[in-house]
Amino acid sequence: MVDTTMTGTILSYTIIYVPTPEFAGEAPFGLAVVETPDGDRLLTRITDVESVPLEVGAKVALDHDDAHGAVYRVV
Amino acid sequence: MRDVVIVGAAETKFGKSELSYRELAAEAGRAALEDAGATAADIEGFFLGTFSPGTFIRQEHVAPLVASELGLGNVPSTRTENACASGATAFMSALFSIAAGAADVALVVGAEKMTATPLAEATSILAEAADWENESKIGLTFPGAYALIARAYMTKYGKTRDILDAVAIKNHQNAMGNPYAQFHKVIGKEDIEKSPMIADPLTLYDCSPISDGAAAVVIAAADAAERFKRRGVRVLGFGQASDSLALYKHDNLTALPAAQHAAQRAFRMAGVSPQDVNLAEVHDCFTIAEIVATEDLGFFERGEGGDAAQSGATGRDGRIPVNPSGGLKGKGHPVGATGVGQLAEATFQLRGEAGERQVDGAEIALTHNVGGSGATCVVTILGRPA
User: Fold this and answer.
1) CB of B35 closer than 8 Å to CB of B10
2) Rounded CA gap, B170 and B175, in Å?
């Protein structure tokens, strides 16, 4: 079970426009290196990047957990 | 260690080739032997750097395959795989075999056949060199990994994509003088502006291409090299280092820590400093990679590598010419061939035989070959024939 209060800060991000074939239907999608308050780092999907622009330093919170692992959103 | 010299070097043209994998590898190997004035009978060890022939062309166990094609008989043959640094790793293995006294003369070939595979599948195969569990499984591609570096770098140092454009334009220009290069096409900012986004902020022109190709060098113990027709290019120093496959685990997102470690080892062994280097062939798999490399190697301060590309400091007539061959961007990137191709190019430069792309008075050259997003790095420092 993932703790839904998990938060973090974007250290860097990208939006993938040309994915590997298994993700062909999902592009464009956001990915970010996120640092948690404990100093841990993870690479994670960021949801809704069309409506909420990504930015280095932006705060994120866990949105949900799916086949892509933990998916965060900019808050 | 025994002193080692490069007595022969060759490359095939990079790009889309009608030749098969074994034909490409053998063509480069034979040409390097001929360049050295050597025959198959001189070779006591064979090393093949290659990334993924098993997936690209359904053929593994390729070292004896190519050795046999070259008529090397029962010579021991070994394949090395370290993603895009497979070629330089083969060179290192050959050096060690000579250092250990197992061989006096060795042949190193790097090869890859990529264009027979559909592009989407090739992207997947390349992604296998990333950390599948932590990166590829959620959709990170290699352009995506370097896009993370580019975004972190541009944010930290307040740069725009003008620095990336400068690298792409320079390397395409440099490739014009290279008969082995995949691209002979000058590009400008307007071409880059029109090119499709691959992984924001990287567009098509920030990425090296999918290529076929092979390269080879013949190396020998200096005390066994007099029988060859050319005076050898001297191996002054080398360094190899590793890091986590997953980019996000690196200590620094705006550098490749393994490249810094490899460079420090190579410079210490060679007894030279970055200021002594006359030209560098660096692993510009993406434009941002060249900028970061010029900082990791100590040519420029942190945050100044992009400015250096824009100012012309890394141009052929600049303070430190970087990728006079056109680099991976302009010359092409047949993965396993790349590291060996860099060594071949450095050899041509140090012998004064690089034609239109010759860096005048080149005495010391450096090569920098990277696997993945910096999980393997090999740096080699070479000196003009004595």
Assistant:
1) yes
2) 9
Contacts of B121 (CB under 8 A, 6+ apart): A21
A31 contacts in B (CB within 8 Å)?
A: 138-140, 144, 148
Closest CA to B35 of B203, B327, B221, B232: B232
End-to-end Cα, chain A, rounded Å: 22
**Beta strand B376-383 pairing with B364-371:** antiparallel
pLDDT digits (tens, 9 = 90+) for B111-136: 999 999 998 899 899 999 999 999 99
Signed CA dihedral, B200, B204, B207, B213: sign only = positive
B348's tokens: 């041509």
Helices (H), chain B: 21-36, 53-56, 62-69, 86-99, 119-127, 142-157, 162-175, 189-194, 257-270, 287-296, 305-311, 327-331, 335-350
Give me the residues paired with residue B197 across strands. B203
SS3 A51: coil
> What type of residue sits at position B220?
A
Using CB atoms, which residue from A17, A22, A41 is nearest to B198?
A17
Find tokens 């919170």 and name the residue.
Answer: A61
Q: Which two tokens stand for residue B260?
A: 């810094």
Distance CA(B338)–CA(B215), nearest Å, equals 8
Rounded to whole angstroms, how far apart are CA atoms B80 and B86? 6
Return d(Cα B124, Cα B119) in angstroms, integer: 9
User: Please, which residues have CB within 8 angstroms of residue A46's CB and are 6 or more apart in sequence?
Assistant: A10, A13, A30, A31, A32, A54, A60, A71, A72, A73, A74
ipTM for the predicted complex: 0.95
pLDDT tier at A4 (50, 70, 90 boundaries)?
Answer: very low
Profile chain B (386 residues) by mean pLDDT over runs of 10 residues.
Answer: 96 98 98 98 98 97 98 97 98 97 98 95 93 95 97 98 98 98 98 97 98 98 95 97 97 97 98 98 98 98 98 97 98 98 98 97 98 98 97
> What does the pLDDT read at residue B1?
85
A70 touches chain B (CB under 8 A): no
pLDDT of residue A68: 87
Tally of CB atoms within 10 A around A41: 17
Q: Mark yes or no for CB contact A17/B196 under 8 Å.
A: yes
Rounded Cα distance between B33 and B209, Å, is 28
Separation CA B67–CA B37 (nearest Å): 18
What pLDDT, on the 0 to 100 scale, is given for residue B151? 98
B121 contacts A43? CB cut-off 8 A: no
